[in-house]
Amino acid sequence: MDEKPPTSPNNEQQRQQYRSRIRKLKMRLLPIVQHVCKIVIAAVLALWLWSWLYDENSNKNRTWMRDGEEVAKSGWRWSDVGATREVEWQPCYEKYDCAKLELPLDYLDLTDKRRAAIAMIRFNATERTDYKGPVFINPGGPGGSGIWFVKHLGPYYQSVVGKNHDIISFDPRGVGASSPRISCWDNMQDSKIWKFKDVDVLDAHPGSLYDAYAHAAASSQQCAYTLQPPTKSDLGVGSFVSTASVARDMLEIMTKVGEEKLKYWGFSYGTYLGATFAAMFPDKVGRMVNDGNVDVVEYSAGRGIHFIQDADTIMAAFYHFCHAAGQELCAFHLDSEKDIETRLEKLLENIRKNPVVVPGSSSSSGRPQIVSYSKVKRMIGSTLYRPLVMFPALADALAALEKGDGSVFLDLATQNFDDPLICESRYGVQEGGDPTDPTPEMPEAEVSEDGGTTILCSDGGWMNDTVDEFGAYVDEVMIRSKSVGAIMAEMRLECVHWSVQAKWKFDGPFDGNTSHPILFIANIADNVTPLRSARVNAKGFPESVILVQNGYGHTSLSAPSKCTAKTIRAYFQNGTLPAPNTVCEPDLTPFEPYNVTSSMAESCDDHQLDVALFELMKAPVIGA
What we know:
Layout (H helix, E strand, L loop, with lengths): L11 H50 L1 E4 L2 E4 L17 E3 L3 E9 L10 E9 L10 E5 L7 H16 L4 E5 L17 H9 L11 H20 L15 H14 L5 E6 L1 H12 L4 E7 L4 H6 L9 H15 L11 H17 L2 E3 L10 E3 L1 H11 L3 H16 L4 H8 L34 H12 L6 H14 L4 H4 L1 H4 L25 E7 L5 H8 L6 E8 L9 H13 L8 E2 L19 H15 L6
Parallel strand pairs: 6-7, 6-8, 8-9, 9-12, 12-13, 13-14
Antiparallel strand pairs: 1-2, 3-4, 4-5, 5-7, 10-11
Helix pairs in contact: 2-19, 5-6, 8-9, 9-10, 10-11, 11-12
Organism: Lachnellula arida
Keywords: Hydrolase, Membrane, Transmembrane, Transmembrane helix
GO molecular function: hydrolase activity
């Protein structure tokens, strides 16, 4: 290629010979150049493909930090899952299966082409030799994310019902990863700003009730405008999230996963869903445990009165067991139960007038905080859901508040508790997050507070009380519970002037001759779902049995009892019901240290059951 043309331009023959040699050289080089180009292109494509595969693998195995610990991140997102007419499971969250099932939005008008997409999760049976199919879980609410609870607690539920069961749950329509997802706001920022505005407890100060009523009415108007705009002729999605529609969804899900009859364990609001399903489809009930029962008649009427009749009994248990525990185990201890009660009343009255200020230097947020009467009352109300977990910490916080130290109270609000030791190895359930206001790892919201309100108000109807009529209701509820009446009356307040009505609302009758009797479970004292409600609900379902647990708190999970857990397991495994009037004792009492290693001398199965019950006891409670 370095050959030069002849220097004499007048020699035409030489120039032609030169051009001929150049053409021949190009002809010889062209195939070589083409081959080299093919190799280069192939190499580039191979490099690109390798890079793409590497990135995909990195996304699947990449780690991220949570609470200072490295956690595997799957790279899997709900937004990447398409809804299908049949259940198509795919791996998710490291050890689970997930799917989205497409179902009719309006079961009463199948010509409506709009569809719901129900997000589902499954923790597979770990013993397959005597496989008994799935048990469906509903954690309560309304508005609780079944995805969140099974993702965090699936192995623990399975330890109770038996490892030869799958654990399946789903986000109800309007909630979390399911669609349509209910939101009363155009963006999350506006929602957070609105909900950041604190509203005092109804008995905090003169005028608190009026402010709370106006705040609730404004929220309802916002939801009405967003969920059912006046310019829209068709019913908005808020009209299709009632419990009747969810029960129908559950029937479809059960059928699509290949089951003829439902096996179900529902908690709190989940018992209302269970009772609705049993009344609508009694021949489809295989096993049903309704744990912590909502009075179905009062709930559907939207005017609950008796639901808090046991709350003061649990508050009295705080005084009783604090006194019995002594100063070493209860920081709020005095010489008698009555003295402890009086001490708390004086503290509340003092804080009503003189809220405790926590300076920014002592606050984890770096901002000053105010511990007010309303915050303390709400915290007391929350502790009644889980006395075993919360009572000792509450006593510490109250004792510190007496001394003007609110930092202990703020620490309690985070609800962080130590994990127990275990027999062999942890189940590895990912921790962190809150099913009522999660910061999910994707990040994708897993629950909708607005969805919960919409379901509640769809089921209970429009609360059209005037402010004075609502005030009379508050007085009635406060008579039934001095400790939390003013707090729990707010549940009805959520639906003040609510106007988004359900197209399909099931009002009963809540009865039916189910294909297998239902097992109802109730604590001797439950702050929001009393034993009375279990008795009311059980009357509608012949041959069903009520198991009473001699514990305090909300649902059987609040007071771990291997007696209760083994009764539930026997029921799911072979259909065995306990004898009528059976009472199970809890494994410990409030302020008694819970030593999860106490069963090490027993079987490892019993120890794992202890661990499971402890973890389930610590789990968040929707609405607490």
